[in-house]
Amino acid sequence: MKLHDNIKNQQKHYLPILSSIKYFLLLLTFASFNISASTEQFKLKELIEAEHENSSHPIDLKLYVFDCGQILVRDISIFNPALTQGEHITFSDACYLIKHPEGTLIWDTGLSDSLLDIPGGVDAGGGAFNLSVSKTLKSQLAEIDIDPSSIDYIAFSHLHFDHTGNASYFLNATWLIQEVEYNLAFSPEAEQFFFNPADYD
């Protein structure tokens, strides 16, 4: 009984202290929440101000999309055996031009313009594909008064021939590429990945 009374007395003695600690922790939690909320509000305010500033001074940015050829796939199951065998599909080959105050960039150069001169296009991959061009990249650039030699930057989604066909038009452009990809593109292993340096060198 004495032990029980001692414990009860100790509980009474520590109860105000524990209550104070709980109260302090509760206050600390609310304070942290308020600081966090204030920080988020400050960040949001900064973003709104930046957006307002940008809308007050819009960047002269233009994006052009060009038709850079078509690829007829005569059997789509070549990509995945689960797809319908013998079903045809035609892929569009697009190129993009970005005009920015700090420079002009061409993204991908499509199939070679030389395919325009070949009626019916060219078969590739043992007849699995047919490659064709209905209008040249050079003529589409001319339509918007762009000389290929004036383009500042060139970049490729990847280095297969259907994306690099007209790379030689842009000899004055700086090529934007990762070092690892560049090293592979000119290595003896390039052929394993269906890369051909003649397409982009």
From TrEMBL:
Keywords annotated in UniProt: Hydrolase, Membrane, Metal-binding, Transmembrane, Transmembrane helix, Zinc
Membrane-crossing segments per the record: 20-37
Known cofactor(s): Zn(2+)
Alphabetical list of InterPro entries matching this protein: MBL_superfamily_lactonases, Metallo-B-lactamas, RibonucZ/Hydroxyglut_hydro
Alphabetical list of SUPFAM superfamilies matching this protein: Metallo-hydrolase/oxidoreductase
Any GO MF annotation of the entry: hydrolase activity
UniProt domain Metallo-beta-lactamase: residue ranges: 95-191
Record flagged with keyword Cytoplasm: no
Similarity annotation: Belongs to the metallo-beta-lactamase superfamily.
Name the record gives this protein: Metallo-beta-lactamase domain-containing protein
Organism of provenance: hydrothermal vent metagenome
